[in-house]
């Protein structure tokens, strides 16, 4: 893909809105803008970073009255000359202005191409570039906080600090190996091993952070399960705070999975109301029950809804079905009765009809999510975390390479072999921030971005 031409795209969501932004970036961004925007000063001659009001045209046809701002390289998001047209947000108008910019000589940008150019031009490292996409797609407060922290460079600084320590040790090894006859001050073997142990422990913590980072970034899926008429749909409606699922006294009403994303403690939780688990009476209901069983298997955890008035053998069968899946037992209809039995899993008494017990249920869900990462770190979104599989895999490889270096020292092998292991560790960490990563990987990362970003 070329990076020396001029690209354009709509930088705001498609559809009707108050304002739409057309972004132009590249060596001919200003000459292109000169052909479509007419005001007191041409965009190429206007004061940088100062909005001016004028006409947006395609040839002699006036399309809109709008604003234009220019940002000369290298002081722009992409590091190139950038121009933005701020126009009225009509869907047809936006497409017309975009077409005018294309007719003036720009090329339609590919998904994520603006951010990719920012990475190529050194405005963002790869971890910070990924954070741009994460921030756009964040569905809860803590996912946004994690993305902002990464965008600010907190993860990149952590990676760089560990990587610099590895490079320093590698340099000392190389000097000692290349000039054994010189009286050069370098670490003793025990001190060197201690340093490697510190680095290994830091990498262990980094790898461990990935589970929480991915949960915050991607959210979690919860299956609401139980036999018919225990109040599963009522519970979903109570959690969401609106009438989202149909509620009737007729068993088997729910057939398809009804999903809704809710923020709990700042964490995105996708709740899925499933068909009541029983022997289905019709083909459609049987299909719904099979979908429910599949959904349970694919979920991160379950809420098993029981009727507080009576717990039946069918309920025990459902509890046996989910025994290997993290789950919370929700005893519904607390306003009518309160079951006094005990369960092996956490249980909460609630009333979906009155809302009583919902706060306790939320606390139980958050405690269960904490158990996924072994502590309460999910409550602290400002912690430095790895946030995706690519980052975690690279950190695991770096940690393993450091451990290989420690094994090499322990086995008494030459220093140059230890240096090879450490060089590999530094290279793997470099992949996280984009210092040593293939063009194919870079393309795959940015093609997941939306157009205009």
Fold blueprint:
Blueprint (H helix, E strand, L loop, with lengths): L6 E4 L6 E9 L3 H8 E2 L13 E7 L2 E11 L10 E8 L1 H13 L3 E2 L4 H8 L5 H12 L3 H11 L2 H25 L10 H30 L1 E6 L6 H9 L17 E7 L2 E7 L9 H16 L2 E7 L5 H9 L5 E6 L14 E3 L8 H16 L15 H22 L4 H19 L5 H8 L7
Parallel strand pairs: 1-7, 8-10, 8-11, 11-12, 12-13
Antiparallel strand pairs: 1-2, 2-6, 3-4, 4-5, 5-6, 9-10
Helix pairs in contact: 4-5, 5-7, 6-7, 6-13, 7-12, 12-13
What does this structure look like?
The chain has 453 residues and is α/β, with parallel strands linked by helices. It has 14 helices and 13 strands. It has helices spanning 29-36, 91-103, 113-120, 126-137, 141-151, 154-178, 189-218, 232-240, 283-298, 313-321, 358-373, 389-410, 415-433, 439-446; strands at residues 7-10, 17-25, 37-38, 52-58, 61-71, 82-89, 107-108, 220-225, 258-264, 267-273, 301-307, 327-332, 347-349. Helix 6 packs antiparallel against helix 7. The chain is flat and about 80 Å long. The relative contact order is 0.12.
Task: Offer a few descriptive terms.
453 residues, alpha/beta, 6-stranded mixed sheet, 45% helix
Brief synopsis:
The protein is of the alpha/beta class. The protein is built from 14 helices and 13 strands. The chain is flat and about 80 Å long.
What share of the residues lie within helices? Answer: 40-55%
Beta-strand share of residues: 15-25%
Q: Can you write the helix and strand succession as a string?
A: EEHEEEEHEHHHHHEHEEHEHEEHHHH
Query: Unreliable runs, pLDDT <50, ≥5 residues?
Result: 182-186, 245-255
Number of strands: 13
Mean pLDDT equals 86
């Amino acid at each position: 893909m070329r990076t020396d031409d001029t690209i354009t795209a709509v930088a705001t969501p498609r559809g009707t809105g108050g304002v739409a932004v057309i972004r132009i970036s590249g060596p001919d961004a200003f000459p292109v803008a000169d052909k479509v925007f007419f005001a007191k000063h041409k965009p190429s001659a206007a004061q940088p970073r100062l909005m001016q009001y004028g006409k947006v045209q395609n040839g002699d046809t006036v399309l809109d009255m709008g604003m234009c701002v220019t940002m000369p390289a290298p002081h722009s998001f992409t590091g190139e000359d950038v121009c933005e047209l701020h126009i009225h947000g009509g869907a047809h108008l936006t497409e017309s202005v975009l077409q005018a910019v294309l007719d003036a000589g720009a090329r339609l940008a590919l998904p994520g191409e603006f951010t990719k150019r920012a990475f190529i031009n050194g405005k963002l490292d790869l971890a910070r570039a990924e954070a741009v996409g994460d921030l756009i797609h964040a569905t809860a407060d803590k996912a946004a906080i994690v993305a902002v922290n990464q965008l600010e460079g907190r993860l990149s600084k952590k990676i760089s600090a560990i990587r610099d320590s590895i490079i320093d040790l590698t340099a000392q090894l190389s000097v000692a190996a290349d000039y054994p006859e010189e009286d050069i001050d370098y670490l003793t073997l025990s001190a060197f091993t201690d340093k490697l142990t510190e680095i290994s422990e830091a990498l262990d913590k980094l790898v461990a952070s990935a589970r929480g980072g991915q949960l915050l970034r991607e959210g979690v899926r919860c299956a609401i399960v139980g036999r018919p008429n225990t109040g599963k749909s009522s519970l979903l409606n109570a959690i969401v705070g609106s009438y989202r699922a149909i509620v009737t006294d007729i068993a088997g009403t729910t057939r398809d999975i009804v999903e809704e994303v809710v923020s709990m403690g700042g964490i995105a939780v996708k709740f899925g109301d499933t068909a009541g688990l029983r022997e289905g009476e019709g083909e459609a209901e049987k299909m719904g029950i099979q979908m429910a069983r599949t959904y349970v298997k694919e979920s991160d955890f379950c809420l098993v809804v029981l009727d507080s008035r009576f717990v039946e053998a069918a309920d025990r069968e459902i509890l046996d079905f989910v025994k290997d899946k993290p789950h919370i037992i929700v005893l519904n209809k607390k306003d009518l009765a309160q079951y006094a039995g005990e369960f092996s899993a956490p249980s909460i008494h609630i009333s979906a009809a009155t809302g009583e017990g919902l706060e306790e249920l939320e606390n139980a869900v958050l405690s269960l999510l904490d158990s996924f990462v072994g502590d309460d770190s999910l409550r602290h979104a400002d912690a430095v975390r790895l946030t995706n599989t690519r980052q975690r895999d690279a950190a695991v490889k770096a940690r393993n390479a450091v451990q290989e270096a420690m094994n090499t020292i322990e086995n008494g092998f030459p220093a140059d072999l230890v240096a090879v292991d450490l060089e590999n560790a530094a290279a793997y960490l470099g992949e996280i921030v984009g210092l040593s990563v293939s063009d194919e990987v870079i393309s795959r990362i940015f093609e997941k971005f939306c157009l205009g970003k």
